[in-house]
Inverse folding.
């Protein structure tokens, strides 16, 4: 059950034990499962047949967009002859997302009809008339000079910083990038200061280019965490190997505290009560772009490791993996994407919290979204009818138990709510939260992270590095 | 075939001939039609059975929200005991729209689940799992003091300027009115200067109140045009009476020129070619709120009358009626509403033009919407699958024919495009367009309208009044 993927560690990590206990490379698939995929790292475009008890991917099949290994050299040579589009870091994250089928049945960056349906309907109608959810535009922006460069070519090469071809986009369509409309319809505001907008939209080109994507080499980050980046196909294989008859996904981009752990454990208990024999938790931290004041992925993975070492979650029924999507902070719009992508990875239950993918309004003193809208919108979203939505029960620190417990409205005086802001303030000030809020090892990671930030700010080290 | 509804004319009109020839009160319904409705003006809530060959209303039945005539006095007395919400002019237009079933199956002002589905999905899922289109929020805003006044009451009375009870809203739900999010998701911009926003949202309350609507008396405007305000039920009766086997709707809020007439005549020809025996045109000018620089309804009706008198459209196959909705100018979002409402009125074909419901960007020197997005979004919209979308063919002035003709790209030099702006400028300057652009009588109305405006600006008369 040990990880066998080759690693290229740029930074030392102590995260091996997490790999060992909390996910494993699929070995042999049960006979009943017809999926032929293996963790080869070089899988061609293929169709996934519904496997065992797992939920079907959107559109009935998982669409992977890799060039067959035998064709790679040829495609690389083809790419060299094509007009080149240089990918930003976030573009590359979307290439990763698309290539592994998280956005199935999308076959590449959106063409205009997909873009318009996403903006207006948060869903896309397929040729057979069925509807899949798609709430966040997955688009590639180009500027006038790139558009001119492409001219009449029907394909382009997508290249990295050093002009290495990453992928080919073919049968392309170029259409106007109305940024204001895209932002307004995705975020429900055009206020300046939205992190993803500032990072990826404001200074991007005035055109969007859609088409069919073929990725020449699977995207790797070589940051010591690639082995946690299981694709939907790999996750499905893992769930099948574990004979999961229910998969419940927990999306997170923050440190895990014991309230989260309580929720996840309680969810499994409830699923068992419902008659499922082996519900498996997909603990699925988001790994793509996040805003500057979020805890970076490396530190979060380190914190998750400590929490898991603490034994609060059962390794036998927990799979930890990284969700490669960038973060939009688009609240009720984005939570649909977070849920939809997990269907493609085999999850049929999705835990939704208060104000998912929310943030403060960039200008006004209020939350950008109503805290309840995320779960309401998710529960009504087209294309997500098959997914069971599990609203987050509110956990708080119970003074009578010296630990996290579900809030009991009959005795509010016994509970302390510790907000994210409060948690960060404590960690920054090297203070301790109440006993039982978070395991000491996990808390220590947080304190170390904020120490490293303070050190960086004082000019002592340039970059915070996980120790 | 003459209009029999009682009229209360505040302004003299010469529009009688239009009534006489272009619509008629249903007399006897064919035996094959099970609809029991008559033009009584006092119809209770009821269910419409699919009638003859007409398209079914959304949700399978036309939902009318009138108090039964026998119950009116009782309801009026009930209303006097309830907390009162004063309706604005636009609120009253929406009461009108809802009461007649244009928004079927909506049963009143939207509750939060309907509002959220409208904003995010432009559609609403019904209890049976089916989906109807709903792209524009139909909501009623109240302020803090009104909310306090309502307190724990489960019903409110909706009253006019003089506190006369118009309707009762029951089983109410009050929820937050996030104006910024509503505007951004409906218009795709939050730029100041959107007409409907300035008129009806910016200064409205911070709460929305939804609930089940019952209208005590059908809404009348007493402006001489009420007889043109046929409800969906009345239109369906009329189409049935005429044995229409196809109904094609043409939404307009501008003067009709010969290019429009050409298009409508050509559409009928095409429908006949498709095998329909009796396609009927619903010429359906919008009658609710419009922005200040649009030609007012009275002048437009007068202009339509002249155009129709000219005989360009066949009275036997044309029904002229007023669509009571206010105008949002929300482009691709609003065109769905315009189309959906016409399904409820029995139309199964909808003619969509360039940049429907579009306008200039309030701040930037460009159109707010891409001119092609309206028809693209409409053709993909959830809940409108049953509606046949007929894209507007481009008509222009053909110098070789001295008249309007469909543009022939092989001889562009022969055509002159006369934009709305150009048309208005000519009329304002009392100049004539090329012969054959518009019938002289219709053109004269336009010139008169702009004359009256200029006179009003010079302080000679206070209000433009149709002559």
């Amino acid at each position: 059950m040990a990880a066998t993927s080759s690693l290229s560690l740029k930074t030392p990590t102590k995260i091996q034990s997490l790999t060992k206990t909390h996910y494993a490379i699929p070995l042999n698939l049960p006979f009943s499962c017809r999926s032929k995929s293996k963790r080869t790292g070089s899988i061609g475009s293929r169709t996934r047949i519904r496997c065992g008890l797992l939920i079907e991917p959107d559109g009935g099949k998982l669409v992977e967009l890799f060039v067959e290994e035998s064709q790679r050299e040829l495609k690389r040579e083809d790419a060299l002859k094509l007009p080149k589009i240089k990918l930003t870091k976030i573009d590359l994250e979307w290439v990763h997302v698309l290539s592994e089928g998280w956005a199935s049945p999308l076959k590449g960056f959106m063409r205009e009809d997909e873009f318009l349906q996403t903006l207006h309907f948060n869903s896309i109608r397929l040729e057979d008339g069925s509807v899949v959810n798609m709430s966040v535009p997955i688009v590639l922006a180009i500027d006038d000079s790139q558009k001119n460069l492409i001219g009449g070519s029907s394909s382009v090469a997508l290249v990295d910083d050093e002009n290495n071809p990453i992928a080919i986009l073919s049968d392309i369509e170029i259409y106007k990038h109305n940024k204001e409309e895209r932002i307004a319809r995705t975020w429900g505001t055009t206020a300046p200061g939205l992190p993803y907008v500032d990072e990826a939209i404001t200074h991007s080109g005035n055109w969007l280019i859609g088409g069919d994507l073929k990725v020449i080499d699977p995207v790797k980050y070589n940051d010591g965490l690639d082995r946690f980046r299981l694709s939907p196909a790999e996750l499905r294989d893992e769930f099948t190997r574990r004979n999961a008859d229910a998969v419940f996904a927990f999306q997170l981009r923050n440190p895990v505290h014991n309230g989260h752990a309580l929720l996840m454990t309680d969810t499994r208990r409830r699923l068992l009560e419902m008659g499922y024999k082996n519900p498996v938790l997909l603990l699925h931290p988001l790994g793509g772009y996040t805003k500057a004041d979020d805890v970076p992925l490396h530190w979060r993975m380190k914190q998750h490791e400590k929490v898991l070492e603490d034994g609060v979650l059962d390794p036998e029924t927990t799979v930890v993996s990284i969700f490669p999507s960038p973060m939009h902070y688009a609240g009720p719009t984005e939570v649909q994407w977070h849920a939809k992508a997990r269907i493609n990875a085999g999850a049929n239950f999705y835990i939704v919290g208060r104000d998912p993918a929310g943030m403060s309004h960039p200008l006004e003193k209020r939350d950008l979204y109503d805290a309840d809208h995320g779960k309401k919108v998710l529960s009504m979203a087209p294309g997500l009818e098959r997914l069971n939505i599990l609203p987050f029960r509110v956990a708080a620190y119970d003074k009578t138990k010296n630990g996290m417990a579900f809030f009991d409205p009959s005795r509010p005086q016994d509970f302390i709510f510790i907000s994210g802001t409060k948690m960060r303030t404590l960690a920054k000030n090297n203070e301790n939260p109440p006993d039982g809020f978070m395991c000491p090892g996990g808390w220590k990671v947080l304190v170390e992270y904020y120490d490293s930030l303070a050190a960086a700010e004082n000019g002592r080290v340039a970059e915070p590095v996980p120790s």
Remarks:
- The first helix of chain B runs from residue 16 to 22.
